[in-house]
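The authors assume throughout that readers already know how a fold can be written as discrete tokens. For illustration, here is how one protein appears when written out as sequence plus structure tokens.
>
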Amino acid sequence: MTLNEAIASIKPLDEGIKNKVWERWDSLTKPPRSLGRLEEIVVQLAGIMRTDKPEIDDRYIVVMAGDHGIARSGVSAYPQEVTVQMVYNFLSGGAGINAIASTARAKVMVVDVGVAKRIDISHPYFRDYNILRGTEDFSKGPAMSRESAVKSIEVGIRVIEELNEIGFDIVGTGEMGIGNTTPSSAILKVFSPDTPLELLVGPGTGLDEDRIRRKADIIAKAIELNKPDPSDPVDVLSKVGGLEIGAIAGLVIGCASLGKPVIIDGFISTVGALLAYKISPDVLPYIIPSHLSREPGHRIALELMGLKPLLTLDMRLGEGTGSAIGMLIIDCALSAYYNMKTFEEAGVSRNV
């Protein structure tokens, strides 16, 4: 599907099914709505999947990988070579996301959207959809062309179509790209112009206060130079964004177009979801936010979409780790929904 075709395919959730699930929740042996977000998650899943018996058996974490020209400006504590090294680490099963995803019973797929060095590996869960060998340094001009920005979004849609052919119930977003909190903060600043940059720019991989201030200054000057148009999300992506961020937006749009839930990870993933939302607000009901990270802009990005995170764990690793943990929360919600007895079954008095 093209981007426009995917957008045209998005449908509202099934409200009749959602009401039916609420009725079951209210019949179970507990005060009404006392399981809070757990109840809301199951209702949301049911509305997305159009069944009052939602299941999430087949799960994937999709790690979108890309490099950034802006990294050469010293906005990260790590060198750019770490991106490709971590991709190999993901594919060998040695990263944080692999450890947590195995507990969540999720497969980890890695997609090269824009890694600077060629990844020479044959692996069933690796996709080489490289568009560019990294973006340009957007402190000196646009990060990429508009055409490349659209292509990055359509990579995400393509991956979801492929997974749909294999069969999946839920996808979690993940990312890898040294320096990618900088384009994420820049995108967020464009969409939240009245918010001071110091509230949007964080340490990323571990910058000290002086380097955080320098990072904010680079972003401010880059926005002034490139003048991204906040009414045109693709323009924003092309001017100050990243290829993996665009691919995450496409992943969200692709899930919504196929009627599948998508659980988003931390700051970078949430900015990708925000891009998707700015492109098509109809994606919003399909998004489940897993957690609130330590990056200061993450809360603001979630608030711009009216989303509430499931957890606050002070994480800032990325990779999709929060998405995998969120899947475990969903397991708890579904277990309560299916395994609790009704008042009638348990012989418990009910006074409402």
